[in-house]
Amino acid sequence: MSTKSRFADKLSEVLFLEIKKENIKNLFHIESNEDVYVPVKASSIVGKVKTEKNVGQLPISFFIEGMFYVMGADEKFKFNDMYTNILVNLKDSDKFIKGKIAENIKHKNYEDAYILIKGLCKMEDSVEIYDKVLIIVDELRKLDKSYEDEELQVIEKLKKYGNYPMAYFYEALIMKERGDFDKALFCINTYISSGGEESLDITEFKESLKLIINYEKGKEMLYDMPKEALSLLLPLLDEFGDDATLYYYIAVAYRILENYEKAIYYLNESISIDSSIVEVINELGINYASLGDYKTAIGYLRKAFEATKSIEICTNIIMCYLNNEDIKNAKLHLEIAKKINPEDEIVVQLSQIIK
Prior knowledge:
Pfam families: TPR_8 (PF13181). Keywords: TPR repeat. The protein is mostly helical. Among the domains are: 1-124, no CATH class; 125-198, Serine Threonine Protein Phosphatase 5, Tetratricopeptide repeat (Alpha Horseshoe). It has 20 helices and two strands. It has a two-stranded antiparallel ribbon. Helix 6 packs antiparallel against helix 7 (110-121) and helix 9 (148-161) runs antiparallel to helix 10 (166-178). It is elongated, with a radius of gyration of 33 Å.
């Protein structure tokens, strides 16, 4: 559910009392040219108040909370300007609502705290308030990813104030979670250059981003620039030495460079960490085939084929049998390949070779 839909549901729980324009002045000490629907949020009280006649029985604090709540939940609500006018003229309404916000935070009711403080922003547009907004919405994002866009909007608002490096810190966290590591690194560097404290945690965060970026770049360069890829991937073993996939990528680079023995070494290292990665098993088969050890290659390739039923692996098995002069098994696996995809380009070529 989107935050907009969630806030709409929240508003459906609010009772709106129609106050005649003549009574607005008596209650709130301001003039009004129209009747106003004033919200009351307190659910334990609303059942007792059905008409305007006993509105006076309610403490003003219920109206204060209700108006801030509606302004925070729906920034385009018809009476928001009137609510702002009322609240500005009610002494200590801001102090009261700050207490309510703190109370909600204490009880970990972050959503209501967020809605109330968003309403407060309509009256008190300051970096101090938006700092608290950011802290609350960040807690909500940790619980519910649908708040991510809300937090980014708050971050952009804080950037406009200038001299607020924490905005870039929180943006870096979000970008890292999104997998946009380059943007995350840019944000954390901006945080530091803007005056943010470079604590040990921040330094470690920044260095971890650099490692991840090198990992991603290494994978991207693997097939076109294997030497350059290795220059990025090999140093990562110090930090990610228990990552079986990293050993796999290193092995692929060595295989592309035709260093099959080294490739096999790193593939075996990968298997020692995690023996369930099918791509590693297939890669072992390819490397042994490249060394001319077709018997060993077939063993690995058949194991990979059993797990995947991949047409590519099946055709590799056929090629190994052909190179090993085992025509019988080559024909057998060609029939299997035809059942998987008779129109595959390699299958068609092999059908012309194997009669």
